[in-house]
Amino acid sequence: MRYGMVIDLKRCIGCYGCQISCKMENATPPGILYARVSKEEIGEFPNVRRASIPMLCMHCASPPCQEVCPSGATSQRPDGIVEIDDKKCVGCRYCMMACPYGARYYHAKVRSYFPGQGLTPYEEWGYRNHPTGVVEKCDFCQDRLAAGQEPACAASCPSHARFFGDLEDPFSEVAMLVRDRGGYQLHSQLGTDPSVYYLPS
Amino acid sequence: MPLLVDPFDKLTEDLKSTFRPQREWVDKRGLLLVTAHFLSGAGAGTWLFAWLLGLNWGLAIGWVLVAGGAVAHLLFLGKPLRFWRIVRMPQTSWISRGLLSISLFLLTALLYLLPGYFPGLPWNGDSGLGQALLVISLIATAGIFVYKGFVYAVAKAIPFWNTPLLPPLYIAYGLRGGLAVLFVASAIQGRAMDLESAKALELWMVLSTAILLLFYMGVMAGAGVTTAESIRHLVRGPASLPFYLGAVAVGLIIPVAFGIVSYFSPLTPGAMSAVALASLVGDFYIKYCVARAGIYLPVTVRFPARAH
To answer: At a CB cut-off of 8 Å and minimum separation 6, what does A150 contact?
Structure first.
């Protein structure tokens, strides 16, 4: 079992729905984006176009963040999900220097989405799961997985550009998409073996 | 409240840029980490050269500097009270190895020094236990020299750091910083004669670090688009002022110029301590500039363009 995600760049319309649904699901504070959409220029003149590239933690099979973590706060579950134990994290931010995907964020201090107006009841409730002084990142919505649901970003995508499943099952949708549509990983040359694949646009 | 203030501390700007700079290890509290690396490197060098030159007063200075570096390390952490957890992964993490080296050094070096201040203790520096403590402290010193460069060098996401050239550079700067501390301290104490024999060594180390730095930058300039951008950060970008002023002018040109002068006429103790002070400033700024020039690999550089 190895959870993975496939993102079809041909279907992605860059609506930021995944980013917003992730924020709603995880109640992440300002400046922390477990899922985000990067807008990139691709190609060279005159063949240049604008592309939307959804980004999240790649849940690498060989995670460089885990390798450098000095406290053992970053670990990998048997199903491939790379997680952070915020009770063990010391806030050294070494994992942020090691992650080639910019998937980790340091939560320095509690901030409201509405500066000067204090925390909203939703923020007060949500921030209980976001202690300061530690690093955070996407965990493939572990709670939703435990309840038999897809990660919020995949479930909410209006163009069904995200597919989630078991990469090790050759008959799963994700495995077949990777195989049949030429799915590729980001920075595969680094040997991190990400569990998030992209289908060419 | 002004509407144009970025509430996310440059995060928005960084995420939009192709070459995203690392900020956590250099901005705001990140300066504590740069300071920690500077102090621990200079302190380890001070301890080593004080032992080599037989300067007992220098040993205590070395210990204090490493202790200062350890405190700066702790203050940098988001959760300083959990510092003890850092030693849990020495098999994979250079930060763990670094903290173990610093802890071992602080303990053994302190025990080695104590009999000098409290003669009633059951061991002294010349006893078997004292010598064992000294040897362990020197081994830990080697660990302190080595770990800082490797902490940066194993960061796969930042090509400017991810090179085997960085550890030798940090070791060289640590060594010359240690000797520089002794020169400055000896001038303050009026004990310049203690270091008469080490003048040539300090000047030689200044020259060798200058060559190492040029070699490192030359290699990095041609090592890819991200490292070239890091070099641009240093020579024409946001890090250019501290680089030219602190690392190059004060840290290299002034000491090298004094070194050339010394070839024709011996340097006075005052001039030598000025060289040492400039070396220390350069040592700090080179660590700051290397951290400042850390730029992440562009995450989307591998996306193929559609054929038209």
So the answer is: A141, A144, A164
